[in-house]
Design goal:
Length: 357
């Protein structure tokens, strides 16, 4: 069933929590993380990852809608499998994940400050992002039905609208995004990347300002360097200590292409952020092999990674979101039936071929 609040426009929230692992339990923790922990998705959580960043600390991080309740609800719903994982950390609530009040306190106690969060899907809730591609596929089936049986266009449209009106309402705010030709083909895989890097002391204030400015431009002007790389779903920075920084991202495609995109498209922007990191290439991010070595040396193992829409790439989702916005006008202007409806469909297909391909 599609959630009734699917159309809510939200700015995604995020949290990074560093939990102390009980002495001698790292191997047991790894064994638990190999299992499928979250069997029961509850919506509103875009992604969640759990992995030890060293022998004594477990990272739990997530991107979710609106507030922490979304994450707490997901944890409570999956408490039976989550408790055996997190009980290996110090101070875990006796009532486990089912005790949402205690879990909130536990998570907030160990939270690391977020410096910046980037999302490729501006102000779209998790249900909206998750349902965008199914809406696009449903519309394609409707188009095929009209092309096969023009005389039954009215009945086909009535069925499509009945099954998808909630999905269409998702896009009722904002204009349709126009996508470049480069954003119309999609790679096949989705991957998480997590690393921890150390910065020089004299870079601390500069990095804080750079990321704060970047967050402001993203929030107020929808401008961010990562928009030039159409394969990154999310990226975030969080502060572990004054000079130790956590970086996470979710990207489509292969690792080598991910590094190449950074080096080719936004090297100078990366230099502003990572330039003060210990071991950063002397030639900056434009030196792709050196950048790859720098990132690989600090890259943490994948361990547990949950994604609400794991089979959908950035490009596919963005095309679907853009099409969904245009379907608002399609439905408002659609004739009641007959040949006029068929012509309406044909005109829409002609104008939006790139989003339907």
């Amino acid at each position: 069933m599609i959630p009734p609040d699917i159309g809510e426009k939200v700015v995604p929230e995020t949290i990074a929590v560093l939990l102390p692992i009980k002495a001698g339990h790292k191997a047991a923790l790894h064994a638990q993380l190999e299992k499928h922990v979250f069997e029961h998705p509850v919506g509103e959580v875009h992604y969640l990852r759990m992995l030890p960043i060293n022998d004594t600390t477990l990272l739990v991080s997530a991107v979710f809608d609106a507030d922490l309740n979304a994450l707490l609800n997901l944890m409570a719903e999956n408490a039976t499998r989550l408790d055996p994982v997190l009980c290996l950390t110090q101070g875990y609530p006796a009532g486990g994940a089912s005790d949402t009040a205690a879990m909130r306190t536990f998570l907030k106690l160990h939270e690391s400050p977020t410096l910046m969060l980037y999302s490729a899907f501006d102000r779209a809730s998790e249900p909206a992002v998750r349902e965008a591609t199914p809406l696009r596929l449903e519309f394609l089936e409707f188009v095929k039905a009209v092309q096969r049986h023009p005389g039954a266009a009215r009945a086909s449209y009535a069925t499509f609208l009945k099954d998808n009106h909630v999905r269409i309402d998702t896009h009722s705010e904002g204009a349709a995004d126009e996508l470049s030709a480069a954003a119309l083909s999609a790679p096949e895989r989705q991957n998480p990347f997590t690393m921890v890097f150390d910065i020089h002391e004299d870079w601390v204030k500069r990095l804080d300002k750079t990321l704060k400015d970047g967050e402001w431009f993203l929030d107020h002007l929808n401008i961010h360097p990562l928009r030039q790389i159409p394969t990154v779903h999310y990226a975030r920075f969080a502060k572990i200590t004054r000079t130790k920084i956590l970086f996470e991202s979710v990207y489509d495609g292969e690792w080598e292409q991910y590094i190449s995109d950074f080096a080719v498209h936004i090297p100078k922007k990366l230099d502003l952020v990572w330039g003060g990191a210990k071991g950063y290439p002397a030639g900056g991010a434009a030196d792709a092999p050196a950048l790859a070595e720098f990132l690989e040396e600090r890259r943490l193992p994948r361990d547990y990674f949950y994604m609400s829409y794991s089979n959908q790439t950035v490009k596919e989702i963005q095309k679907s979101l853009a099409l969904g916005k245009k379907l608002i006008w399609f439905t408002r202007e659609a004739p009641s039936g007959g040949e006029r409806l068929v012509r309406h469909v044909e005109r829409f297909i002609h104008r939006n071929q790139s989003l339907l391909a």
